[in-house]
Amino acid sequence: MDNPTEPELPKKIPVPQHVAIIMDGNGRWATSQGLPRIEGHQAGAKNALKIVEHCGRLGVKYVTLYTFSSENWGRPAAEIAAIMKILHRYLVTQKKELTKNEVALSTIGDISKLPHYVRKALQAVQEATKQFNKVHLILALSYGSRNEITRAVQKISTEVKNGNLDSEEISEETVARYLDTHNIPDPELCIRTSGELRLSNFLLWQLSYAELYVTDKFWPDFSPADLEQAFKDFSERVRRFGQ
Predict the structure, then answer these.
(1) I need a surface site. Which of 11, 48, 74, 135 has the fewest CB within 10 A?
(2) Which of 2, 3, 47, 72 is catalytic?
């Protein structure tokens, strides 16, 4: 018998090859439930795997999750420490699940700032899943788009200084090659939860022509059915790319 909680898959609804998600509202969700903020982050981590799995069922190839921004380091130390522990637990406990679902894990951002035990867990999961090609899960960790673009410019400047690149030959394609996402197609759809109408320094270059979808739901409440609604909305848009 079919699981009654399993959402029906939409029929013939085009889905984006790459969806980027700003998972916003964990803390406010917890507050609305009368719970400590950290429980919101725990609920958000649990929901992330559910949404990624559903993306795979629908045929999405790339999912980028805005997991921890460069600005998030400004939060209280206790909250940061708790988030890092949740991230570590997620990586350790869900490694088997990611493998079962043939999800390849990678990261963007300055992960050198993450605690050693988190980086070690990341490396273990990346190594265990690197052969998979069904779904690519990209975690944006200690990530800020302005920082990413700045680092790309620094690398390009070094190449020019060393005589490996002619400054007159620098193009948009050149810049893209030096971004963290150089081997990932640009997202076609960006979903943001909690109703905020901003990109918050997320994939500013890569989202130039992505479709934006905003829902008032907090991330822990964003369901597979909500994901399907976002894809339905996406399928009904006309993408002109300025032409």
Answers:
(1) 11
(2) 72
Cross-strand bridge partners of residue 138 = 64, 106
pLDDT tens profile 105-118: 999 999 999 999 99
Which runs of consecutive H residues, i.e. helices, occur in the chain?
Answer: 26-32, 37-58, 77-100, 116-129, 145-161, 172-177, 224-235
Instruction: Tell me the C-alpha to C-alpha distance, in Å, between residue 75 and each of 113, 158, 159.
Output: 15, 34, 36
Summarised one tens digit per residue, pLDDT across range 141-192 is 999 999 999 999 999 999 999 999 999 999 999 999 999 999 999 999 999 9
pLDDT of residue 240: 77
- Tokens representing residue 200 in the block: 């918050």
Q: Where are the domains of the chain?
A: 18-144+187-235
Which of these, 210, 209, 229, 226, lies nearest to 218 by C-alpha position? 226
Report, at the CATH architecture level, how domain 18-144+187-235 is classified. Answer: 3-Layer(aba) Sandwich (3.40)
State the Cα–Cα distance between residues 158 and 208, nearest whole angstrom. Answer: 26
Q: What is the pLDDT of residue 238?
A: 83
Choice among 2, 3, 24, 201 that is catalytic: 24
Residues 124, 93 contacting (CB under 8 angstroms)? no
Could you confirm whether 26 is annotated as catalytic? no
Q: 0.90 cut: is pTM over it?
A: yes
